[in-house]
Amino acid sequence: MSSESPFDTPGRILCGTVVTPDFAASLADYTGQLGLAVVEEGRVPPDLARSWGAPAQVARPYALLAAPGGAGCFVRLVEGAPVPSFSALRHFGWAAFEMSVVDAFALHKRIDQSAFRVIGEPRLVPGFDNFIPFQVAGRAGEVLYLNTVLKAGMTDLDLPHAKAGVDAIFIAVLAARDRAETVAFHVQALGFEEGQTWVIPYSMINQSFGLPDDHQTAMTMTKTGRLPASEIDQYPPGATDRPRATGELPPGNAIASFAVASLDAVAAPFIEPPVPRDGALYRGRRVGTVRGPSSELLELVELVEP
């Protein structure tokens, strides 16, 4: 991604929403450990909660966070009820948000594991020499892949160099019930392009399900041009639907918000009809949310300014 290109382009991830039962502690983790700054705070309004299909989320506190001087992507924390049966990387839906960082090794050394538990040490991934990732799980069960990009160009994708210590979400990782069906939905209904498919020993999945180290997982990227969007992983038979509190968003990695050129081109039903919304994330633009075949929530923000 060129440093001169505007951030608001079709296919860009604009926000990743994390639902946490301990809002104050999670907020302290993201500001203190990851260095994100609070851009906006408030309580979830009724119409926004309905647009997510989560009416019980009304009036829960939220905070919109961003990297100081970073690319322009947000992390949104929303308070939710505890869900004891939820376990990270075991359920369908959004599994992780992949964020660019300046120095994965330095961040790993200083991370407080009472805030973010390290579940994958920084290392090169076999078959990929473009980035060094490490993985953490937050106190809400959310998972972050924190990646230092070494070489920005891949075969058909551009990866971002971080401008802040912890910067933008550039890939949303999806645990799919049926990878092919989910990819088809993202392409045919939402307008993304199908990128490359890899079959690799996926350590995060193998650890979560107690599979052999050499167990192979198929993963397909979606994209817009050379801009990555989602990594859609075929989850193993032991995966289950994500438990959630009645009427609430799913716990952990809950929503991925994407920029789109036109909501009128979306060939999937919206939970509620799209409407213009205000605030730092929406900026008066039309917004609507759809639910994908793996129960993933995609909040789509139309780029046409009012």
Task: Compose a concise summary of this entry.
This protein is mainly beta and 306 residues long. The protein is built from five helices and 16 strands.
Task: Summarize the structure in words.
- 13% of the residues lie in helices and 38% in strands.
- It has helices at residues 23-32, 46-51, 104-110, 179-188, 203-209, and strands at residues 13-20, 37-43, 61-66, 74-79, 93-101, 116-120, 131-138, 143-149, 166-176, 193-201, 216-224, 227-234, 252-260, 275-276, 286-291, 297-302.
- The protein has one domain: Roll (2,3-Dihydroxybiphenyl 1,2-Dioxygenase, domain 1), CATH 3.10.180.10.
- The strands form 2 sheets. It has an 8-stranded mixed sheet, covered by helices on one side. It has an 8-stranded mixed sheet with strand order 6-7-8-5-9-12-11-10.
- It is globular and about 45 Å long.
- The longest helix is centred in the first third of the chain and has 10 residues, at 23-32.
- It is mostly beta strands and 306 residues long.
Which characteristics define this entry?
single chain, mainly beta, 2,3-Dihydroxybiphenyl 1,2-Dioxygenase, domain 1, eight-stranded mixed β-sheet, 5 helices, globular
Q: Can you count the helices?
A: 5
Spatial separation of the terminal alpha carbons: 27 Å
Number of strands: 16
Kindly identify the CATH topology.
Answer: 2,3-Dihydroxybiphenyl 1,2-Dioxygenase, domain 1
Mean pLDDT over the residues? 94
Shape: globular
* CATH structural class: Alpha Beta
